[in-house]
Fold this sequence. Notes:
Chain A is of the alpha+beta class. Helix content of chain A is 47%, strand content 15%. Chain A has 12 helices and 8 strands. In chain A, helix 8 runs parallel beside helix 10 and helix 10 runs antiparallel to helix 12. Chain B is α+β, with helices and mostly antiparallel strands. Chain B has 2 domains: 5-168, Butyryl-Coa Dehydrogenase, subunit A, domain 1; 172-322, Butyryl-CoA Dehydrogenase, subunit A, domain 3 (Up-down Bundle), CATH 1.20.140. Chain B has 10 helices and 9 strands. The chains are: A alpha+beta, B alpha+beta. At the A-B interface, helix 1, helix 4, helix 8, helix 9 and helix 10 of A face helix 5, helix 6, helix 7, helix 9 and helix 10 of B. Bound molecules: flavin-adenine dinucleotide. Flavin-adenine dinucleotide binds next to strand 1 and helix 12 of chain A.
Amino acid sequence: xxxxxxxxxxxxxxxxxxxxxxxxxxxxxxxxxxxxxxxxxxxxxxxxxxxxxxxxxxxxxxxxxxxxxxxxxxxxxxxxxxxxxxxxxxxxxxxxxxxxxxxxxxxxxxxxxxxxxxxxxxxxxxxxxxxxxxxxxxxxxxxxxxxxxxxxxxxxxxxxxxxxxxxxxxxxxxxxxxxxxxxxxxxxxxxxxxxxxxxxxxxxxxxxxxxxxxxxxxxxxxxxxxxxxxxxxxxxxxxxxxxxxxxxxxxxxxxxxxxxxxxxxxxxxxxxxxxxxxxxxxxxxxxxxxxxxxxxxxxxxxxxxxxxxxxxxxxxxxxxxxxxxxxxxxxxxxxxxxxxxxxxxxxxxxxxxxxx
Amino acid sequence: xxxxxxxxxxxxxxxxxxxxxxxxxxxxxxxxxxxxxxxxxxxxxxxxxxxxxxxxxxxxxxxxxxxxxxxxxxxxxxxxxxxxxxxxxxxxxxxxxxxxxxxxxxxxxxxxxxxxxxxxxxxxxxxxxxxxxxxxxxxxxxxxxxxxxxxxxxxxxxxxxxxxxxxxxxxxxxxxxxxxxxxxxxxxxxxxxxxxxxxxxxxxxxxxxxxxxxxxxxxxxxxxxxxxxxxxxxxxxxxxxxxxxxxxxxxxxxxxxxxxxxxxxxxxxxxxxxxxxxxxxxxxxxxxxxxxxxxxxxxxxxxxxxxxxxxxxxxxxxxxxxxxx
Lengths: 356, 325
Ligand SMILES: Cc1cc2nc3c(=O)[nH]c(=O)nc-3n(C[C@H](O)[C@H](O)[C@H](O)COP(=O)(O)OP(=O)(O)OC[C@H]3O[C@@H](n4cnc5c(N)ncnc54)[C@H](O)[C@@H]3O)c2cc1C
């Protein structure tokens, strides 16, 4: 594993890019992604028969840590690599796997996430996007929001209602669809963030035809599937390393005497080091196929808070860095995206037996 | 990190019916039982009469005792005093020992369990290097004191001019602190895990407004944060045990445990209400012990400062410091 890390580090040193905070969210660089893919560092856990590297989750974990720590521009393939590939492997048909996994592993096929809607955020099961039966497929109608990268990605996985909510089980009647973002009926509009950036979008679906061959998994099984997808979405090192480049820069500037010394520097480093141990545990659980919901929620609650605290520290000591500006602008999103801190505390409480 | 199941059984059964000790008073009967089971000198080599185990086993023992609110000089006797004697090539036996680093004037403040010790192993610096001696308490002056939890933290004064020591390597002084500090981090995490259990039990059984406290989301979140901080602190301490004590890994463990203590203690008392502040309720045997241990072998600030120094002297290679290859 140390060899692998050393290789990635050497690669990163040899490439030209401006280290950024939150680069897994904002650093879209398709050339960089393809370069990584040539080194088999995209789609690492995809089996070889589908064009992947057939590596373990722990190896992927080590590589993603290195990429994040360097602030490398990895946003283009991030979602496809992190959650779409595992979802296809878990629930996709063989045809779907052959269609999508090899281009994902080559760094040529990018995905977005079609979960949130204007009226459905934390309460994901309340999504109103509808899929109606049509000849040979389904017609999707509804609006997805905060769809990061939809304006550049090829496809996204849409969570939609395939049968109206009946009875008490709110989780029944949901299904997932692989939707080509260039299909007629798909309208993508930018949503500009408070920093003036365009990362996320509103995606309106108006009678978008999705063939039966692009249903992901089983009709009606969408909730179970999306929960499993969230497991991958929530558990990685991007939930504590988003602002590492800023922390590194702050430490270096302090070392040069340009910033006053603050003991929170040490405190944050301790938390990062310990979070790495916890996160390694989550990756091991994923590798062994063990459920890791509570563990992943613990890492994400602690990690996303820390990411914001690092921005605070840099601001407190007066860091004059463009990284700080981005970190402060993005920070509110850290504890919202992928399930808010409050929702995750609820997941932890459930794991402790405090709630049903 | 797995340990021999027989040993694990032994540790579980020996503490089975033990509740928190009234603090400040050493439970001699329990100590003797532990001693006869070979648990008081767990990591001392077998040729010196110990059990020849490692930090892995010691960690389980320290946590098991701490989790029950038991105040015992396990770390002092074995991981500090026993270790120093072994390093110095001095003989050891079943007499209860504590250990301390003496100032040049021959004094040490807040030495754990000094009043209960049959011998006090001292480490001190002279012009020619570091020395160790296995002192007879009759030859030193002990002034009693206690920590927040009531555990003995006595001041010790020895007459160094009249004391003969055995020379040891100079790195032992730093290692002494690291070992003591990790032991406390392990004890803290053991106690925190019990605090978490107490909170879950209390919140699910205490009813207000016609429902268990656990049904209130603010209470759930207080406890979720206890769980999060505790698991972080535990992961850091476990990593030291697994990967070896280094100045960095111990500092990480102590910083995480120390900051976790803030949240764990504050939230646990909040969840327990007034009942948790009483002498009768056992919560304080854990929370006060956690705070007491946090003050031993370096303050939280000192550990954060050590890490800060490591970070600012990493020459821009912060990540390599955190994730060495
Ligand atoms: C940067 C960024 C990128 C994103 N990218 C995507 C994407 O690509 N695809 C996608 O589908 N979504 C995306 N999202 C959306 C994200 O998943 C939602 O923001 C998140 O689920 C929260 O939903 P919401 O924003 O509607 O807030 P709400 O659900 O309205 O919540 C608002 C506040 O109320 C709290 N709250 C809500 N319910 C409860 C409750 N039961 N108990 C206690 N507190 C509660 C929340 O914690 C939060 O503090 C992104 C968000 C951000 C910030």
